[in-house]
Amino acid sequence: MKKRILTGDRPTGKLHLGHYVGSLANRVKLQNDYETFILVADVQALTDNFRHPEKVREAVREVVLDNLAAGLDPKKVSFVLQSAVPEIAELTVYYANLVTVARLGRNPTVKAEIQERGFKESIPLGFFMYPVSQAADITFVEADLVPVGEDQLPHIELTREIVSTFNRIYGKTLKVPQALVSETPRLVGIDGKAKMSKSLGNVILLSDPPAIVEEQVMRMYTDPTRIHPIDPGHVEGNPVFIYHDIFNPDKRGVSEMKELYRQGKISDVEVKKKLAVALNGFLDPIRKRRAEFEKNPKLVRELLDDGTKRARKIGAEVLAKVKGAMKIE
Ligand code: TRP
Fold first, then answer.
1. Domains contained in the chain, CATH given
2. Which string of DSSP letters, residue by residue, matches 58-122?
3. CA 319, chain centre distance (Å)
């Protein structure tokens, strides 16, 4: 029997290059070797978008299409809609007993998100405890592996703790999952900020048309110490070259460009133009696949129905085991 992957996305908008390098690339690579579940985490998305249900509702379809466009095979992977899985909500309630408020408060990803969202002292409880619900996401299908970006590691760590605590108190019931972080676990934003993120407005979407990609690239931050094109430039930590290293298949060309840049013999504009070409080359097949899948308006609905059903079958068994262990069967 194949081992299982569960990973997922919050449907708050279309997916971007950061999602791709952090998790989508690994999903695509591993879909043949693992039984793969892709969770569209609409309940989690609502924890900080509860005033905008229409936004979450619309993004569900986009997120599925982005995953397909990235190269996931609809015949191989199961797409699961979180809100259609009551087993996850139920597990969340039981797991909440096993986690302290102080432990949740130390989660660096949640801390950063609280800052970004300006919650201050008014943190919605649902948002504060979403990592507990994420533990339920991962364990309800007994996932072995969770391919994620670096920012998700604290959540996987918490999941492992919850599982261990559960097994210690109630007897060995649940499987301890493992995180898988990609070689490029995090992509800087086009503004050079540590993370590409829609809430920071520094993204390139997988579905952006070529002209927008070019515009975004021309707006990118480069070497702040370089005033004139003939100044020697810095390559290390320069977002434009970070992107070249990841997305430009012409490795020799990139290394020549770096040399010229260091010597002040190539302008930022030229380097960016080449990046736009490379990125559009990378995104073209993704955009083409998306256009193909979009032709069938019923596809997303059918995939979600089907995948959710398959996952819930497993979830029902896991929940029965959990309740048995807790003597509430
Ligand atoms: N928290 C993830 C994100 O923001 C989305 C997510 C929800 C997820 N449930 C998950 C990721 C379970 C991995 C496993 O992108």
1. 4-187+297-325 (3.40.50.620), 208-290 (1.10.240.10)
2. HHHHHHHHHHHHHT--TTT-EEEEGGG-HHHHHHHHHHGGGS-HHHHHT-HHHHHHHHHHT-TT-
3. 26
Listed in sequence order, the DSSP H helices in the chain are: 17-19, 25-30, 42-46, 53-70, 86-95, 101-105, 108-117, 125-128, 130-139, 153-170, 210-218, 239-247, 251-262, 268-294, 299-325
Report the Cα 60 to chain-centroid distance in Å: 14
Residue nearest to atom 9 of ligand 1 (CA): 134
Q: Is 10 in the pocket of ligand 1 (CB under 6 A)?
A: yes
For the CA of 6, the closest atom of ligand 1 is 14
pLDDT in tens, 226-279: 999 899 999 999 999 999 999 999 999 999 999 999 999 999 999 999 999 999
Q: pTM for this one? A: 0.96
How many Cβ atoms from other residues are within 10 Å of residue 176's Cβ? 13
Distance between Cα 216 and ligand 1 center (Å): 27
Report the separation in Å between the CA atom of 175 and the middle of ligand 1, taken as the mean of its atom positions. Answer: 18
pLDDT tens-digit readout, 293-307: 999 999 999 999 999
Separation in Å, CA 149 to CA 87, 182, 222: 25, 7, 24
CA distance 51 to 315: 29
Q: Are 320 and 329 in contact (CB under 8 A)?
A: yes
